[in-house]
Amino acid sequence: MEESLSERSVDPREFRIVRLDVDPWPEVLRQFFARQDEADRSGFFLGEALLSELKWVDVAEYYGLVRPKGPGLVGFMGAWFVDGEAEIHHIFLEPSWRMKGLGRIFLRRFMQYSAKRHVVSLYLEVRRSNERARSLYRKLGFSETGERKNYYSCPLEDAILMGCRLSGDVPVSCRDGETPSMEGDLCKDSAAEVCLDEGKARILQ
What we know:
By secondary structure, this protein is of the alpha+beta class. The protein has helices spanning 25-34, 38-43, 48-56, 102-116, 131-139, 190-200; strands at residues 16-19, 60-67, 72-82, 85-93, 121-127, 143-152, 157-166, 184-185, 201-203. The chain has a single domain (10-173, 182-203), classed as Gcn5-related N-acetyltransferase (GNAT) (Aminopeptidase, 3-Layer(aba) Sandwich).
């Protein structure tokens, strides 16, 4: 019997990160939303509000997680960068690609990229019931800083606010004249990722 995707191991080296800001990515992202179940689609306002950020919000950056040999786009994340802070608005993987370590590496890459951009504080929010995600964020250095009552709909639920500070001693300096980028292989710059794993991200008090 052939193994299902959920039973197979996944090699993170097969994945790349791409910026979702120019054609054809907005349309690819639109199709990505269309194939999600109704619960996930409602969380993104059917994708239209989020897609408008790609065009109209200067501080917003969205990145896709892509497996070039198929099936293409399997997840994405988006954040706003303002005055030394970054707020992660979305991080999402298709259900069949979850529980394989991809989300952890994806978020670690974002933390590394943020440090290169001289971001000091990272923030995000998560459903109270999503203990799996909350556990992952805590392992990466985030702590719970507050809540927003009845913030989520479908179903109605509180949002837990989480944050962390990036340590200044993480080795993330760019070469002279180099512009920081999150794009490229998912598993590049593994040495900096190890530093984050070893507790170099400080908890935000």
